[in-house]
Specification:
This protein has 246 residues and is mainly α. Helix content is 39%, strand content 4%. Helix 1 links the parallel strand 1 and strand 2. A two-stranded parallel ribbon has the order 1-2. The N terminus and C terminus are likely disordered. Helix 6 crosses helix 7 and helix 7 crosses helix 9. It is extended. The longest helix has 20 residues.
């Protein structure tokens, strides 16, 4: 007998509720979807190109948000020959270029959203302020600390050789700054805070093997700019470390 193909039909019961429910998907309203993907730098090069292809080809009320470490994700190539991603297809936000205030606000907003939605819905209803972005305040919860304040708290009870070297770098930086900073730059690097200038000491040590030898090379006119560049390389440019910080 010739082979026969069995056929069957499966009847699915009608859905008891809409697949997408809630006020955003009410009848008559066009749904808007936002697809969030984190750690995209962990994808292989081919997977990155495939994801870029989806971003380029997606139409309608769909928005992709891809997060990745700068330099580790290919934001241009797709799997389609002759077609790549351009500024017309996507926007690239470089968080490393954000100001300390902008990056601090971003960190607060992310923390607020995670804390707010980690609560059961019943507890969220009991909050005095129901704004998801107001659930966490860095200053209100942890106080206002600079990088140097945080370092001082970490090492204040220690007795290691590394601690002593760090203190020596900070003391040398204090001397360097008091000699080389212009009056216009002294507000940027106040020298009379309670904590030592540890971050500045590390940055100066990065610029030159010996801090004191650097005083002859960096004049009052560019000492602050050179120090800013060195601190940025260390990720110590503000009170909230940037994504590239160690």
């Amino acid at each position: 007998m010739p082979p026969t193909r069995a056929t069957s039909s499966i009847k699915l019961p009608p859905p008891s509720s809409p697949l997408l429910d809630g006020p955003a998907f009410a009848t008559g309203k066009t749904p808007y979807l936002k697809i969030l993907i984190d750690d995209c730098e962990a994808l292989t090069p081919l997977q990155q190109q495939f994801l870029n292809t989806l971003v380029r080809k997606t139409r309608g009320n769909v928005k992709w948000v891809l997060a990745y470490i700068g330099g580790l994700y290919d934001t241009i190539r797709t799997v389609i020959p002759g077609q790549s991603l351009s500024n017309a297809d996507r926007d690239v936000e470089n968080l490393d270029s954000a100001s300390d205030t902008e990056f601090g606000t971003l960190c607060e907003n992310v923390s607020s959203l995670r804390l707010y939605y980690a609560l059961p819905e019943a507890l969220r209803e009991g909050l005095k302020r129901k704004d998801p972005l107001a659930a966490f305040s860095l200053k209100r919860r942890l106080g206002k600390f600079s990088v140097n304040d945080i370092i001082e708290r970490v090492i204040e009870a220690g007795h290691s050789d590394g601690r002593e070297r760090l203190i020596a770098l900070a003391d040398d930086a204090q001397e360097f700054l008091s000699i080389n900073l212009s009056k216009a730059d002294q507000d940027q690097f106040p020298l009379h805070r309670k904590s030592r200038p540890y971050a500045e000491g590390l940055a100066l040590a990065l610029m030159k093997p010996g801090i004191k030898t650097a005083t002859a090379e960096y004049s009052r006119g560019n000492a602050a700019q050179a120090l800013d560049r060195a601190k940025a390389e260390l990720g110590l440019s503000g009170g909230v470390p940037h994504p590239s910080s160690p």
